[in-house]
Amino acid sequence: MNSTLPQxxxxxxxxxxxxxxxxxxxxxxxxxxxxxxxxSASFGFAMSEAQxxxxxxxxxxxxIPKFRAWFGDNADYHAIRAxxxxxxxxxxxxxxxxxxxxxxxVTRELKAHGYRIALATASPLRRAEHYLAPHGLWGIFDxxxxxxxxxxxxxxxxxYLAAAAALCLPPTACLAAEDSPSGVxxxxxxxxxxxxxxxxxxxxxxxxxxxxxxxxxxxQLRTLLL
Length: 226
Fold this sequence. Notes:
226 residues; alpha/beta; Rossmann fold; DNA polymerase, domain 1; 2 domains; 11 helices; 47% helix
C-alpha cells in the first residue's frame, strides 16, 4: 500500500483522477497483443502471447533487451515496431477503437462531481486524440500527458508526477487508474492512490501488493469515489 493512513481517509483526500488510456479507457490492448505477434511473424519471429503482454507500456529502452533475449541480436525491434504500428493503424482507421465499459459515463460523472481528471498515456497525444475524439472524450480532460512528454517511461513514475503537477495537485491527492503491472508500479512510486483494473491478465503478486485496491471494471470507481 502507498500509505499507512486508512483507505477511507485517503479517498476523502482525493481531488484528481488520472487515467491510463490503453486497457483502461479504450479496448486497445487486444489489438496491441495481436499486431505485435503479427508483425513479429512477418519478420520470421514467433512471439508468444506472454511476450507480447510483457511489452505493454514499455519504452524502446526497456523493450529492446527483451527482443534480443527472445530472438537474438539480429531482431530489429524498431523495424518490427514500425510494422506493428502500420498494421494496427490501418485496422483502426477502418474499424475504430471501442471504449471500455463505463469510460464515457465515469469520466463525465467525476467531472460533474468536481474532480479534476487527467490522461496519462504512453502513447503520443496525436494517437490518443485519434482514439478518444470519435467518442467525444478528447476535450474532457483537465490535463493530458503523453509518453513523449516525459523523460522516463513506465514503470518509472514520471508520467504520473507530471499529470499530478498539471492538475496542480500533489500525487497523494490523485487516484490513478491502471491495468498493467508497469503502470501500477509507476502510479504507486509516484505516490498516487493506485487502483488496478485488470484487462488482459489478472494482477500478479507485485501488483497486488502495490495497488491500493483492485476493481473488476471501471464503473466500480463510482462506488469508490461517488
